[in-house]
TrEMBL record:
Residues 1-20 form the signal peptide. Residues 21-121 form the CBM39 domain. The keyword Signal applies. Pfam families: CBM39. GO terms for molecular function: carbohydrate binding. This is CBM39 domain-containing protein. Keywords: Signal.
Amino acid sequence: MSIKLAVLLFAIIFQKSCQSYLIPKPEITVYSPKGFSVSIPHTHGISSVTFQGNINRELRNFNDIDLLSNVTKVENGKWIIRDFNSRLQSGDLISYRLLVVKKCLRYWFQGERFLVKEVVNLLPSAPPIPVEKDHEACMRSIHDLTQTTIQQKALIEKLESKIQHLSNYVNSQNGRSLILTGRITKEGYPSDTVTFVLNELLNLDTKVLSAHRNTDGSITFEVPTSEDKSDILEALKKSRSTRISIKEV
């Protein structure tokens, strides 16, 4: 009887010693832009830790779990569960439970909720720029921009001068003269005839600088600019008139 009693007492003491382990409250850290970690301190005999959880919904059974992770190696005196995909923000709720295997026995820490109140930024922040260097960089940028603006202005003025010279050259090389032919009157002033054609047939109010009648009855006339000349030819093309014809000299 004494041997059986001793064995029974040993079994009771062993069971109580095994069941005396209580899982400490986990430390949970939420990261930005995503991820979080769950950790508990290491105790001799722990061989694995499993995390099960849901985000913003209750953790009711073992078949409805969003997050499941298991670690079998202690890290710097802690058992750390890491999630690298979940995006959490302040106000989110993590419902979770932990399963710890210690000396072949299973211990549960369940029915817990963690409310996210703060998020740790994982992205490195840029070092502050000294005010002096910032001011120097700003002044240097303003100087460079001013020099570029001056150079561009000089280039624009040079291009405008070349365009003006080219326009003068075009206008001086019969660039403003046209010949009017067709069913036109051979009486009256040639300039009046040209003005009538431009106003009534082409709906233009272009000024006629000069006009003279040729021996074949056509009229050669001149307008102020080469642009006026182009407008007349374009208007005649659109009118599709068969009564008159206007051509370049």
